[in-house]
Amino acid sequence: MHELSLCQSILNIIQRYAREHNFERVQTLWLSFGRLSCVQEKALSFSFQAVAQGTIAQGAELKFQVYPVQIYCFFCERTYEMEEYRGECPDCGSSKVVLQGGTEELRLLEMEVE
Length: 114
Ligand SMILES: [Zn+2]
Known about the structure:
Bound molecules: zinc ion
CATH architecture: 2-Layer Sandwich
Number of helices: 2
Helix content: 25-40%
CATH topology: hypothetical protein PF0899 fold
Shape: elongated
Oligomer: single chain
CATH class: Alpha Beta
Largest sheet: 3 strands, mixed
Radius of gyration: 18 Å
Distance between the termini: 31 Å
C-alpha cells in the first residue's frame, strides 16, 4: 500500500530527528502535500498509527496542509486555484494552461515533541 511506505519514511525521519535532538515523544505532526499527489488523509492517518505502534510517535496526531491545484492560463494571463485539474482554464476553457501547484509530494513540515 502506497500510504504505508510513505508513513514508514516519515517515521524514519522522525526517528533520526529524535536521535539528534533527544526527544521522547511526538505529539503532533504537520504534513503537507498537493491535492493531486494521490495522498488520502484518512488512509495516511490510519497507516501511520499502525506503523508508529511501539515507537516515539505512537498516538501522535496528524495534521495536514493540503495545497490546492493551481494552474496558470496563458490566455487570461492569471493563476487559478481549483479542486480538480481538468487540463483547461476554469474561466475561458482554454487548454493553454500550465500546472503550477497541487502535485507537491508528501512532506513533514513540523512536529511538536516533548
Ligand atoms: Zn483562461
